[in-house]
Design goal:
By secondary structure, the protein is α/β, with parallel strands linked by helices. The strands form five sheets. The chain has an eight-stranded mixed beta sheet, sandwiched between helices. A hairpin with a 5-residue loop joins strand 15 and strand 16. The longest helix has 26 residues.
């Protein structure tokens, strides 16, 4: 398992919230009865992959370099050309440079929340956090709006997401994988794959036992709506566990060595490979988390040696892999951290870095009707502020939903009947779309 802790002490430990197969029942049903999606809507993209760069990556050293800025701003990395004339990115992103035509860079995205937890809530929901209201994450909204096949979950998080379904309720929460796949090794998710020596026949026996217990309870309780719901979701859990399609969707070992090679060998790259398989199988929403971007110290060493190589291989492999399967135009990809990092380099011993900086950051979008090969927005010569007004995370969220055919101004009702729009303040960035 991986573990990341940001400077404010918030831990990011991979954990499993979904139950395993128990001795007398399928506790995956406990999650599934909370995860029923809503009605199908007309839409452009059929699925989405949200890549969360926890910790706040430096815009100045990745997708918004300032080679002509003063030395105390510029940093140690050089800019390289991409396959789109006039667009340059970091020298440590060579694979992404060669697929620049497949994605858009949003520069000059700006907000005012410089704490990790608040910034994460903001970019994961498209709404500024409120003490009085928990907004649902993107995946939970998609889980409500889209209906996956009966034997697949609507929302999968690799390895987890700490942002829940908010006022929509936990029935729209993610199925956390609890870990990341590793190159050359089998990968399974408890509650989807069969554990140990458990066989399909044994699962069938336990399902029959549950059915008998439910009938007994129904005789004593009458036509109870809760018990009806338990029956329904137990059946869905049973369908997932006994489904060959569901088990194979999580099995990256079925991919050829040549296809896997595009994604590199990092856990993040393998997570991107898994995301392509899940989308291809029919899962509407996948979140992938990559932590470690809180580079107050040793910014350039950590980026060069640890952070940028897997990002470069994983995201470039994801875009090429989706395209090779004919899935890129039906899958919208969104990559972001919670904020950027200070343009002016700090002097912290033993090695300098950059601190939290929400006033200017980058985001990436691709697929789902997004026009690739362009840069939208611009920051000033030192990377400190957007030129003109810039765009907010709310705007990017509204655009993300637009690519999925979801009206971001649609109202939901909280459990007390309060009407809440999906995105409170965002406006679609029309230049994103072809």
């Amino acid at each position: 398992m991986s573990f990341h802790k940001t400077c404010d002490g918030v831990g990011r430990r991979d954990f499993l919230k979904v139950g395993a197969i128990g001795a007398t029942g399928l506790t995956t049903a406990n999650w599934l009865r909370m995860a029923q999606a809503g009605e199908v809507k007309d839409r452009k993209a059929k699925a989405a992959i949200f890549i969360n760069l926890e910790g706040g990556p430096s815009h100045m050293d990745t997708f918004d370099l300032k080679p002509d800025a003063p030395a105390e701003y510029r940093g140690e990395f050089n800019a390289i050309d991409t396959n789109v004339p006039g667009i340059q990115i970091s020298e440590h992103l060579p694979k992404l440079a060669q697929v620049m035509d497949k994605f858009t860079i949003l520069r000059g995205v700006t907000h005012a929340l410089g704490a990790h937890a608040l910034g994460q809530q903001y970019v994961a929901t498209g709404n500024r956090p409120l003490a009085s209201l928990q907004y649902p994450t993107y995946g939970s909204v998609v889980a409500k709006e889209f209906t996956p096949p009966q034997d697949l979950p609507p929302f999968v998080a690799i390895p987890q997401t700490k942002h829940g379904a908010g006022f929509l309720g936990v029935k729209y929460a993610a199925l956390n994988t609890g870990g990341q796949p590793q190159a050359g090794k089998p990968f399974s998710v408890r509650g989807v794959s069969l554990a140990g020596e458990l066989t399909i026949a044994e699962v069938e026996k336990r399902n029959n036992l549950l059915a008998s217990l439910d009938k007994t309870f129904q005789k004593t309780s009458g036509n109870d709506q809760l018990l009806d719901g338990l029956d329904k979701f137990a059946q869905q859990a049973h369908a997932m566990i006994t489904s060959k399609r569901a088990r194979e969707a999580f099995d990256i070992s079925q991919e050829s060595a040549e296809y896997q090679k595009m994604f590199g060998e990092s856990n993040f790259g393998m997570s991107c490979l898994l995301a392509t398989r899940l989308v291809e199988a029919g899962v509407p929403f996948v979140t992938i988390s990559l932590g470690g971007w809180d580079t107050h110290n040793d910014n350039w060493g950590r980026l060069k040696n640890r952070q940028l190589p897997p990002l470069d291989e994983g995201v470039s492999g994801l875009l090429k892999g989706l395209e090779s399967r004919g899935l890129l135009q039906s899958t919208v990809v969104y990559v972001t951290g919670e904020f950027g990092r200070t343009p002016k380099i700090n002097s912290r011993p033993p090695s300098p870095g950059r601190d939290h900086y929400p006033r200017n950051m980058f985001m990436l979008m691709a697929g789902g009707g997004v026009k690739g090969g362009q840069v939208i927005g611009k920051s000033d010569e030192k990377g400190t502020f957007p030129v003109d007004k810039g765009h907010s995370p709310d705007d990017v969220a509204a655009s993300f939903y637009h690519a999925l055919g979801i009206d971001a101004t649609k109202e939901y009702q909280t459990n007390i009947g309060r009407p809440i729009t999906i995105v409170r303040d965002g406006h679609i960035i029309r230049e994103l779309f072809a």
